[in-house]
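Run folding on both entries below.
>entry_1
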Amino acid sequence: MGGNIGIEDATGKPLLGSFSGESSRLPVTFEGVTLGWVTGSPSATAALATLLNHFAARESERRALAGEVLHLYREVHLIEQLSEQLTALLDLGAVGTSALEQANRLIAASHGGILIMEEPGGPLRSVACFGPGAPLLPATSSLAASILERGIAEIVNDCASDPRGLASELSVHSIICAPLRAKQRTVGVIALANTNGNPYTTADLKLLNTIALQTAAAIENALLCSEMVDAVRDRAQLAAIQKELDTARTIQHSLVPRIFPPFPERTDFDMHAQMTSARAVGGDFFDFFLIDSDHLGVVIGDVSGKGIPAALYMAVTRTQIKTTALQGKSPEECLFDVNRVLVREKVSSMFATCFYGLLNTRTGEFRFCNAGHNPPYVLRASGELESIDLAGGIPLGLFEGRPYTGGVVQLAPNDALFLYTDGVSEATNNALDDFSDERLAASIRAAGSLPCRDILDCITRELLAFTDGAPQSDDITMLSLRLNHRYEPMN
């Protein structure tokens, strides 16, 4: 570097090397703090000081990144714990308390509270809270009403200056509040607050929204189970029980998507689904959801058994699958985690077959995992019909720790998927003959060029003609998905 050099600590004590004669002395600094000194010839001193300054900055970046990764790991771990806890809870108070405890472990708060609305348009009531004094949000809170109306989370970091007059109803300085959305309905709000003036950030808002999604699903389950239990316990006459079962049927069908097309702004794919229960309530289920703009998840399943027990197990299974899938996990990872939770919290001998697939709408790649379910069909644009292989594992809820493997199918534009439960192929006529896989495949081929809704309508007509009035012995559920073209987002 052009001569001997020396390095000193911040106090001037020599650490390495030495230099005699006329020299230059430059500091090694980071963020305004002097870490040490370099002495030597001017050119060598300047070069080494620059290098050491660079090393100090890189080390600081490395430590900051390590701390960030550790913090994110802790957040993911705590959210996964919350998911497992909420799945097993059917009491509204227990659900609210568990959600607030985990939220407060991730987001600093002196107060917290959850308000729910048990019926659409009904009054809000507090189910859980923490912090000194009265509940954080009164049932008539203007902030809660605003969140419910708009369905959007909000941060208020200075309640005293908020134009809605929050200072008169809240004894805190800053508050963060998110809606509890279950399907198309907002069932309540969750809020955290501070009295010490520390502001909340958009990162806190994102975390609270994630917690709110899981909490809303658990509240939805608790409300459904409560209504069903109340129906059995409080109604003695057959007519009253039947009326409650009809209500339960409506509630169960509200848990699965009912509005088609579900994403009217998306023309790159077409989708339709339908479910017909053999009894007032049943164990079949389906769902679909956009994980992001490029990935569409589709689920279909069938719970062992029928009636109210199957419907309750269906509600828990479907909610757990969606909650886990929205974390962005692969199909095989998702079903592995769901199986673990269902086995650990098992209270009956029930289990569920399930098929979960993830379509990349940009590339047409369809990744999937099959937990003992009927293999779906792929209808190519050419008219060729293929059965998707059985990559996956055992049905959900049987044994813990069993592996699940994933598979992949490539879809081209105008290729279609057909998912179904065994109530379709095993539908029987008065002679007790099955509709059969062969008749189903022929029906799919015959209707293959039609829109997804018409495909299901054609197969339904074939089923009705075949059964010819014979009683329906099992739930019938079908889902069709066609890739119209590759997704190209708007700039």
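>entry_2
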Amino acid sequence: MEILFFILFFILFICLIVGLVRPRLVLGFFKGDKTRKNVILIFGISAALFFFLCGSVTTPPSWLEKTSKQETSPIDNEETTEETKIEKESIDKAKEEKPEVYTASIGGIAKTDLLQLTFWGDGAISMNVPVGWNVYTGGECATKSILARDALSELKQVFYFSEAGPVYSNQESKQRDQNYIAMGGVKLPWFESPIVDPLTAENFLVNFEALAQVPFFQQVFPQVPIMTNIKIINSEKITNRSVYITDAKLIRAEFQQNGKSGEGYFYIITADIAMGQGYSLGYGMMFIGITAPKGLLDLITPSLKESLESYTISQEYITACINAGNKAVAGILEAGDILNESSDTIMNVWENKLESEQRMSEKYSDAILGKSRLYNSNTDEVYEITPEFYDFYQVHSDEFEMSDLEHLPDNKWGHAPLNGAEHIK
């Protein structure tokens, strides 16, 4: 309806304007005088009437309706105001209360919250293993090996494989065996072993998956971990090894096992045994591993280090191996010493890694917060300062009693810093 009234108002308004200029054009059908006075009386009053009617039937805007609907009584307004006040006070109180922050290093937790170990032995060898873990063994004398694994999490495991192999050290050696079998020769047990060339510790670790799935290895040790997609994180050379050793390293690596992501420390010693005329086979003379699900390795390393160190071989077993004429018995005689040595090496690398990560974290935090640190070599104290003060101190150090402060060395980032403004004189 308001649209009709508006159209009529618009037409009458146009007639009013035109009539004021040419009265005869709009009053042609009206009797009487064709004057401007009559134009105003007829069209002006009519336009005003329809303008009023148009305004009276127009629907109020939505914002006005919304405002009307939200109007409440004075009592309701008072209740809302009181609730708002209480809510605001609660928010202000929460902002004032600062939550307590508890900090602890991974290394500290791992060293104090050790896994509970229990004794395990089979008469030949023994080792303390975490409670609830399964233990598997395989091989004899110099090849005697052991694997301890969490029954509920297969990536938590510690193992020692002695003389893991053989593998082929070069393509020519494998080709020679292929030709021998093709001519009717006996199929050698290691015929399907991988080629590891060069015979480095890293290559042995990457190819261990293929070696572990060879039938002769599965027959001796079916529970051997099948680790795929090996990604070397870092490696450290092991020095002071025997002359027959080809390579010896402690490796930290990530891997996949049965579709699960894990990481571990691997102590690997390889040896290339030449048979003559270019034919040679390689062995992992010592393959020791500590593994865990990715992200948990640093938490269980100290516990599994304790487990490795407890590995012992009974004297009766050693005597039996000697009496059996086992030529490689020297290897089993030194196995305990090697496991102790490897566990110490693993712990050193573990501690250095955590210290480096802590240092990087502290440096990043200082950069974000706009802070720096100075070191007092006389008192072995660390002071937290602003970068501006550090720049000033470099130029005006002779004006301070502590005139020989230095930039914080990397090996001192573990020190808790003191407030430089209060302690630097």
